[in-house]
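Our preliminary data section would be incomplete without showing what the modeling component actually yields. Below, a chain of 96 amino acids is followed by its predicted structure, encoded as tokens that our downstream tools consume directly.
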Amino acid sequence: MSTISKKTLAASVGALAIAASFAVTATPAAAGWHGHHGYGGGLAVGLLGAAIVGGAIAASQPAYAAPVYGGCELRRQPVYNRFGDVIGFRRVRVCF
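Predicted structure:
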């Protein structure tokens, strides 16, 4: 699978999970409803969707940083006097 299709799949699953959680929690209005029954289904679908999306995101990213080639960095280089003694340091750009 290419990177684009993995991201598309993860986004689709996330959108589907969010849509399902809204569909489950949507109830008709009831004037006499005073209980808190009905949140369990939406909460379960929301947590399940979050677990699926989180797993897809974790599986799609590499676990290590890719090495950088052809970059530059600053390094400290000693500065010597005419007798060969180190009298300080300067920053030098080193490219590889």
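The chain has a mean pLDDT of 74. The chain is about 45% helix and 20% strand. Preliminary results of this kind motivate Aim 1 of the renewal.
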